[in-house]
Amino acid sequence: MSLHILFDLDGTLLNFREAEYDALASLFNHFSMDSAEENFQLFSQINQSQWDLFEDNLVTLTQLRFNRFKQFLEVLGSDLDPSLVATYYENQLAQGAHLITEAHELMGQLHGKYPLYAATNGIEHIQTQRLAKSGLDHYFEKVFISEAMGVSKPDTAYFNHVLSAIEAEPSDVIMVGDSLNSDIYGGNQSNLTTVWYNPHNYELPIDIDRRPNYQIQHLMQLISILP
After folding, report:
1. Which residues are catalytic?
2. What is the pTM of this model?
């Protein structure tokens, strides 16, 4: 039996918040927009709400990419073209290769001992570029990006596709991620062993379907869980 490990990317191995901040800072400068801190927070909130809708299958990825900037620009009272702004933002975001602390150390220790895979909800060209720039790409045997697959976490169809591609049984797979919805709930629904990366030490959810088998506050703590 071989234990297979799936890793979420944003918020687990890649620091999305820093990448998002840098992309927005560049965008605000490029389009001569107000770079007040509250505008960074405003976009982050709108963006997260759109991703939540996407994970619940209430908007498509195409709608998400447009809607987040349409809503953001409307709140700011800007007449900029949302599509133009979205394209610029995505190109800048693709340059964001910031890492979560201990990401390289953990992957270096696991590589060669276990088959490792990336399992991410995201836009293919952005995630592919960020992985390459981060230097994490060579650790993974396969990378599963929702846009390329046509289905996203937490949908069981996403995990069924992954299990088929890696030729593994659910009992032989661990899902590691920071999202209680896409990673933990999704993994639980597909009968995977789930590990919640919880660096802020949030309380465990009441909902049993979103309770992980394990939780860690630091990435290197994963080592102690593995056989």
Report:
1. 8, 10
2. 0.95
